[in-house]
Amino acid sequence: MDTLIVERSGPLRGTVEVSGAKNASLPIMAACLLTDEESVIEHVPQVTDVNTMAEILRVLGVEVEWQDEQVLIRPGHKPSWTAPYELVSRMRASVCVLGPLLAKHGRAKVAMPGGCVIGSRPIDLHLEGLEALGARLTIDHGYIVAETPRLRGTTIHLAGAFGSSVLATANVMMAATLADGMTVIEQAACEPEVVDLANCLIAMGAKISGHGAPLIRIEGVSRLHGTHYRIIPDRIEAGTLMIATAMLGGDVRIHGAVPEHLGAVIGKLTEANVSIESLDGCVRVRSDRKLKSVDVTTLPFPSFPTDLQAQFLAMMSVSQGVSIVTEKIYPERFMHVPELKRMGAQITREGASAIVKGVERLSGAPVMASDLRASAALVLAGLTADNSTQLHGLEHLDRGYEHLEQKLTRLGARLRRINSASQNLSVGG
Ligand code: EPZ
Question: pTM for the whole thing?
Fold first, then answer.
């Protein structure tokens, strides 16, 4: 088991390049199931979740081959329709093979995702959307079994109690590309990753309009072809690096960060006294570490993303004043709070909000990562804390951040990975 040793650091200086978006790569890889032809997907991050999606595609009879940072995806002649529990239980995003399998083969058997550490994550919207397109669905021994002689376009309303759903929009949009007639998705998710998927599907021959807004129209076509497509930069990684610079101080140019994808984050960082400038192809972040507390509420895009809530909360823990951080997507997504409190943060939970009173300095401690974004928050907290912090549970960090330690190290941060089993030290950088 690896442990990350994080030392007090800063300021950060230099340039850094954002990797491709994990949350765009996963549904786009699944979309390659919709064609018989080879696709080449560029700018795919080498993270565990992407490897899990590659494993699922292989089980479904697809060849997946890495060539540097691009992935070649070739559907085979002996397709399978079953995504097994062993793989689906590792990553909930596996459920987005359901729509493509159903549309392409008329059948799919996908393990029902189970519980999730960031809170209740139902898939009712995925299932209702596919049923509306004409799929017959049953739950059998923990598997969703879906069948249809032919999907038919219709109007589908996709909002749940917490607003639109990113992957339900992705699943229904992918299925509708090969359905008979026109599908209209109302209350569709507007996240950049959904737009990226739509653009990739269009490059494969799909007829889609309205993506990026809550009403998406998809006119079914009889077949899709292979494509060569480049994934957008990861806005959550970019936001994490922006918050790191804000907390540690310094002057960093983040190449590939797309300001239009980060409007709410840039707004909140500016309010907190961080200087953000959009330059050609990069975002420049400057901070003197004198941060002001600001309130933040997570909501679907274009509002502040839930996937940056933990990192922002870590920043508020060392800002001047009191802030209220409210989670409106996953009201229980606060597992990082007890760990930050172990480091001296002053945080009180009240339902879906955390009230954070900024402290002068955190103190390093052994902490445990509970999910991907919580682990990033603990890394940032450790970099501002006295002494050293030992972060355990690195498998969470590795699910979604490509070379985060190396990137931070090159900017001047001090952190290194220790393989506790062999006592080998591997310095990130
Ligand atoms: C995507 O998950 C992301 N995952 C998540 O990223 C992200 O936190 C989330 O969107 C919200 O932005 C990927 O893209 C792979 P949702 P998704 O369906 O699509 C409720 C990360 O750290 N809901 O948009 O599964 C749901 O419970 C991760 O990278 C239903 O009620 O999330 C939540 O409250 C983790 N019924 C809200 O909708 C459904 O059928 C939004 O979830 C589906 C969702």
Answer: 0.96
Tell me the C-alpha to C-alpha distance, in Å, between residue 324 and each of 132, 245, 321, 354. Answer: 40, 22, 10, 6
Share of the chain above pLDDT 70, in %: 97
Q: Which letter, b or e, does each residue of 116-125 get, where b requires 16 or more Cβ atoms within 10 Å of its Cβ?
A: eebbeeebeb
Residue nearest to atom 9 of ligand 1 (CA): 166
32 catalytic per annotation: no
Distance CA 373, CA 21 (A): 14
For the cut 50, the answer to whether the pLDDT of residue 427 exceeds it is no
pLDDT value of residue 1: 81
pLDDT per position as a tens digit, 300-344: 999 999 999 999 999 999 999 999 999 999 999 999 999 999 999
CB-defined site of ligand 1, < 6 Å: 23, 26, 92-93, 120-126, 160-162, 165-168, 189, 193, 306-307, 329-330, 372-373, 400
- Candidates 117, 166, 171, 328: which one to mutate for ligand 1, based on the most atoms within 8 Å of Cβ? 166
Looking at the DSSP bridge assignments, the partners of residue 316 are none
Tell how far the Cα of 92 is from the centroid of ligand 1, in angstroms: 9
As given in the structure block, the two tokens for residue 31 are: 């979309």
pLDDT in tens, 112-156: 986 667 777 789 999 999 999 999 999 999 999 999 999 999 999
The whole-angstrom separation of Cα 180 and Cα 216 is 16
* Cβ(218)–Cβ(207) below 8 Å: yes
Contact 118, 336 (CB under 8 A): no
Nearest protein CA to atom 41 of ligand 1, as residue: 165
